[in-house]
């Protein structure tokens, strides 16, 4: 196993839209899958959610981690881990970042999966039935990456 360079970590984050979010709730760690977009212009991870357990936890403790993998096989993979700070967005900033998230993820899907998607519900499991989406970003403080190739 070898360490990834900072640029290789950025490539893993830019080329994917599915990851795992880790946060603490009542003293216990939780890890859940998320759809995300890496915004290289401000070095943040953008995502959204609805009211519930995850958002309550991040509001209480804003220190989070995101893990993203590119796995070819058990012996050929890359993994990027981002440690950062949760920030809830509101108003026009939230609207702009949600648009960037949507267009960014659609672009990755078009490039990697060679398929077209029109609506956010085609690539994200969140539904709006539980109210207005809560848009957030994770300000990246530290990145770590590993690679295994045989």
Automatic annotation (TrEMBL):
Gene3D superfamilies, sorted: Electron Transport, Fmn-binding Protein, Chain A
Pfam families the UniProt entry points to: Pyridox_ox_2 (PF12900)
Name this protein carries in UniProt: Flavin mononucleotide-binding protein
């Amino acid at each position: 196993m070898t360490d990834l360079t900072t640029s290789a970590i950025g490539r893993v984050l830019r080329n994917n839209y599915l990851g795992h979010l880790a946060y603490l709730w009542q003293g216990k760690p939780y890890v859940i899958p998320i759809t995300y977009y890496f915004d290289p212009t401000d070095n943040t991870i953008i995502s959204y959610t609805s009211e519930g357990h995850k958002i309550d936890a991040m509001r209480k403790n804003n220190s989070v981690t995101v893990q993203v993998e590119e796995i070819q096989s058990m012996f050929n993979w890359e993994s990027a881990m981002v440690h950062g700070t949760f920030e809830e967005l509101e108003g026009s900033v939230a609207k702009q970042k949600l648009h960037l998230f949507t267009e960014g993820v659609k672009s990755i899907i078009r490039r990697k999966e060679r398929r077209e998607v029109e609506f956010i519900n085609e690539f994200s499991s969140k539904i709006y039935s539980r109210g207005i989406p809560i848009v957030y970003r994770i300000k990246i403080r530290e990145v770590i990456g590993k690679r295994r190739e045989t």
